[in-house]
Amino acid sequence: MELAFIGLGIMGSRMAANLLKKNKNLTVFNRSAAPIRKLVAQGAVAADSYRNAVKGADVVFTMLASPEVVEKVAFSEEGFVSAMKKNAIWVDCSTVNPSFSRKSFLMAKECGIRFMDAPVSGTKPNAENADLAFFVGAEKSVLDIVQSLLEGMGQKVMHVGEPGKGTALKMLVNSLLAQSMLMLSENILLGEKLGFSKDFLLDTLPKMSVCAPFTQAKAEMIRKNDFQVQFPLEWMHKDLHLAALTAYEEGQPLPLANSAKEIYAAAKQDGLGRKDFSAIYQFMKNGTSP
Questions:
Q1: Pick the catalytic residue: 24, 165, 170, 261?
Q2: Has 170 been annotated as catalytic?
Q3: What is the pTM of this model?
């Protein structure tokens, strides 16, 4: 099976590397050349354009930053979808809004391409260790073809429904992540004002049943004041924006997520966009939150 991977950022580069570890035939392309060179050293074939990357590919993976980027890379005049061979499969692992995934499915179908959305749950260490979870929106027959490829990059593959459902679930997950990190930060800061030591709070709160399990790892980042990026704060802001957009489309009020979105937006404006999203603690500590 001939594979292609487009979008070699923090997540995509590591996912592609795990496909190479499984001895897959993989062609790669990215806007910047450095990740391409690294993967070529591991056995990948470099392409010189999006369109040339997918020629002959049976399955094309994309891991891109936003719906706008996916639309340009996939459907513009220079986009790759029209260059794919008929009946090939496009697996979009990008975090986008559900209505965009449904649109991608229909546009790909018009070109004779099978589409599935398969966004991932996890950050840089999960991508590196092939420990991701995939939320898949697809026809079952399409998933069956690529199931083993997804399992080469992750530990869990959840088929949650038709195209668009994978990105819908990912949106809910990331909204919870963003708000949970914000709530932990807020309560650590209040706890310190109430006389508890920061170390006590970091040791205690994340281990309580009221806290999301992921906050234990983020607590260590706060303790060390080390917000080296695993999942960029600017991407979390983008995902909250997509949640707000989808809520508007569905006529569903979203007051808490919208409040969180504005706080992450202010943190991004304050220069924290390229830090890990746990840096929202640093932003709130500085007393500049809305």
A1: 170
A2: yes
A3: 0.94
